[in-house]
Amino acid sequence: MDIYARNKEDKNKIVFSGDIGRFDVPVMPDPTAIEEADILLVESTYGNKENPMDEPGKSLAKIINKTFEERGCVLIPAFSVGRTQTLLYYLTKLIDEEKIPDVPIYLDSPMAINVTDLYKKHFKYHKLNQVWNRSLFEHKNIHYFNSQDQSVALNNIQRNAIIISASGMCTGGRILHHLYNRLPRENDTLVFVGFQPEGTRGRRIIDQEEMIKIFGVWVNVKCNVAYIKGLSAHADCDELLNWLQNFKEAPKKTFIVHGELQQAEALKHSIEASLGWHNVAIPHYLESAVLFRGL
Asked: Which run of H or of E encompasses 93?
């Protein structure tokens, strides 16, 4: 994004990092390097944490196999954009390699289905066409459930199925009725595959609260709960610095955003210590800042 001052010879560049992706992942290319910015706004979701991949497929297989041995189902809350498609990659790969049983995978999210259609049409923007000689998303085990009736019917499945639904933080969407029905089932497993911020329903489940309110009703959490960190789509602290090192010079001002205070403060310290940038700020809620004089 370029902003021009009244004097048209003055040209200033603002860079919004957005969610910086991970490096060396199977689906998406590495984050694009940016070399110049006058003003930078950078995310800090994992500003104080390393988040190694640690073979997420292996972790998934262990959880899934244990659940099926106990005659249950696996429920995975997942974001519709990116996370769901990455999950489909790992799950179908595990089935094809016979590392998990040949079971159905139900994708129960209209938005995730629409996004997956985009992956099918625009294969040049991801890496899957380089490792698959057919369309991953046409795999025989994947079942796309768009209608509400199809979604409700999943409640009747008692064992040997994998259900993926949104939202990824369990704050809304079809995942809620799946949680309502499956949290009390001792044989089922709820698998989190992404960061759960404080205050979300997902975070409360991970923090082992015994009862969760859904649709105004308190529901007992008796199912198994697992958390696979390596599937997060956010760059960890080392990858954030890796991306920031591409800038040839320090921006005139860097704002650290999109992260809890502890993570933001840790990233600020790392930027100052590792990169030598000193004009780094963590904005407060509703704080205003003048970026360029004379606008």
From this structure: helix 83-96
Q: The CATH number of the domain where 250 resides is what?
A: 3.60.15.10
Indicate whether 13 and 156 sit together in one domain.
Answer: no
HSE-up of 104 (CA within 13 Å, CB side)?
12
Give the N- to C-terminal CA distance of the chain in Å, as an integer.
15
Is 183 in contact with 223 (CB distance < 8 Å)?
A: yes
95-129: pLDDT as tens digits:
999 999 999 999 999 999 999 999 988 888 888 76
- Mean pLDDT check: name the lowest of 66-70, 75-79, 116-120, 221-225: 116-120
> What is the domain extent for residue 32?
2-50+234-281
Say whether 110 sits in a helix, a strand or coil: helix
What CATH number is associated with residue 155?
3.40.50.10890
38/85 same-domain check: no
Alpha-carbon distances, residue 231 vs 55, 79, 162 (angstroms): 9, 11, 17
Residue 178 · residue 143 · CB < 8 Å: no
